[in-house]
Amino acid sequence: MDLTQIRKLIKMVDESSIAEFVIEEEQTKIKIRKPGANQSAQAFVPPPPVALPSAPQGAPAEAPKAEEPAEEKGHVVGAPMVGTFYAAPAPDADPFVKVGDRVAVGQTLCIVEAMKLMNEIESDVNGVIKKVLVENAKPVEYGQPLFLVDPA
Amino acid sequence: MEKLFDFERFDIKLEAETIGRKFYYFDECKSTNTSAFEKTEEAPPHGGVFFAERQSEGRGRHDRRWLSARGMNLTFSVLLTEKAYFNDPPLVGFAAANGAAQAVENLFQLRAETKWPNDVLVGGKKIAGVLPESQSSGSNVERIVVGIGMNVNQTDFQGEFKILPTSVRLELGHLVERERLLAETLTLLENQFEKLRQDPALVVHDWRNRCRALGDTVSVRVGDETKTGVFDDVDDRGRLLLKFKDESIETVASGEIVA
Question: Per-residue pLDDT tens for A82-108?
């Protein structure tokens, strides 16, 4: 499943009345849970009769576990506009940066091109490139994460 | 020494309030876009124009070379730093093509058309090209530079071209005054940039009115693929809408019309 599909899923779940959504494919499991999902789920559970010994508060049997992968820590550089991602200044050149490279504020990370406008994206932090999140020459959406930078 | 550029003539003709009021003249520089992006001590001048008689590293898209004879043509870049003009950065290319086309038409009565996205053609030949570039710090666009090359008095073009070049002089049969054409272009550019600030759809509207290829069957190179369909229209952000036989439409933001 690629980022675009994941984004579509999130949007779909977000716009629905679904509080929690899990999808499992061969190698991936994605779980989307809306904020406050616990509470809203509980709202549908009839309150236990007062006379009965009540289950401990806030521990419903089906409580969704916090199992989504911990958010990767770091500074995300997102696409300033819709376009095509270029990792290098020319088709046969080396990429501007690779995973593990140390980058400084103002250093060029990539180019996003649309309608011949070449938008050079410079780092807005000092740090180390932790992840390059897009493949060369692939389309990117506005705001799509391009790099994860470990600020240091 | 030969007199290459007559600033007085240019200044008299320039009606723009901001664009070109700060003017940087280079006998030679690497490329005017590079000069416009150079970081200086002072705040970068919004509307500044960087003009060169000769570019040693003139560029087109993907670092293709842009060749221009010294003193014959107009090669310059306009710097925009005010974010009110950054509503839709890729449309600066449309704005520049519109301005250049209108200037050629106003001064020389040559019918100029736009070719997606940013070229200007006269009689199917290329008379002006645009190379817009921008710089972002992280996700925020900080500067936009739009480089424009106009073939004015050059008559001999060496090399191989996908679209044949022409010049104002070739079309008219006589030399023309570069200073006047530059002033007219900058004045019209300012008007286009104002439209970009107010409502980018106005710029798309002007562009569409100049495009002769709408409805034509075109081949568009997108990444490694070439797709053929009908050039149906451009959307409100200037993206090419390519319609296929099965009536489906693809929106192309990055690509090049190859045939």
Answer: 999 999 998 889 999 999 999 999 999
Interface test with B, best of A115, A121, A135 (most B CBs within 10 A): A115
Phi, psi angles (nearest 5°) of residue B212: -95, -5
pLDDT tens by residue, B38-87:
977 788 899 999 999 988 877 665 555 556 667 899 999 999 999 999 98
Q: What is the largest CA-CA distance in chain A?
A: 76
Contact B61 A81 (CB under 8 A): no
**At B76, which helix (H) or strand (E)?**
strand B74-80
Phi-psi region of B134 (alpha: psi -120 to 50; beta: other; left: phi over 0): beta
CA dihedral (B205, A142, B60, B51) positive or negative: positive
Q: Find the residue in B nearest to A117 (Cα).
A: B132
Contacts of A90 in chain B (CB under 8 A): 62-63
A105-139 pLDDT tens trace: 999 999 999 999 999 999 999 999 999 999 999 99
Task: Please tell me which residue of chain B has the smallest CA distance to A123.
Answer: B138
C-alpha distance from B212 to closest chain A C-alpha (Å): 18
The reply to whether A135 touches chain B by the CB within 8 Å rule is no
CATH topology of domain B7-210: BirA Bifunctional Protein; domain 2 (3.30.930)
For B61, name the nearest residue in chain A, comparing CA atoms only.
Answer: A116
Domain ranges in chain B? 7-210, 217-257
Closest CA to A123 of A102, A100, A137, A92: A102
Q: For the whole model, what pTM was predicted?
A: 0.79
More confident residue, B224 or B142: B142
Provide the pLDDT for residue A70. Answer: 52
CA distance B178 to chain A (A): 26
Rounded (5°) CA angle B117-B253-B126: 15
Smallest Cβ distance to B140: which of A80, A118, A137?
A80
Which CATH fold would you assign to the domain B217-257? SH3 type barrels. (2.30.30)
How many inter-chain contacts (A to B, CB under 8 Å) are there?
94
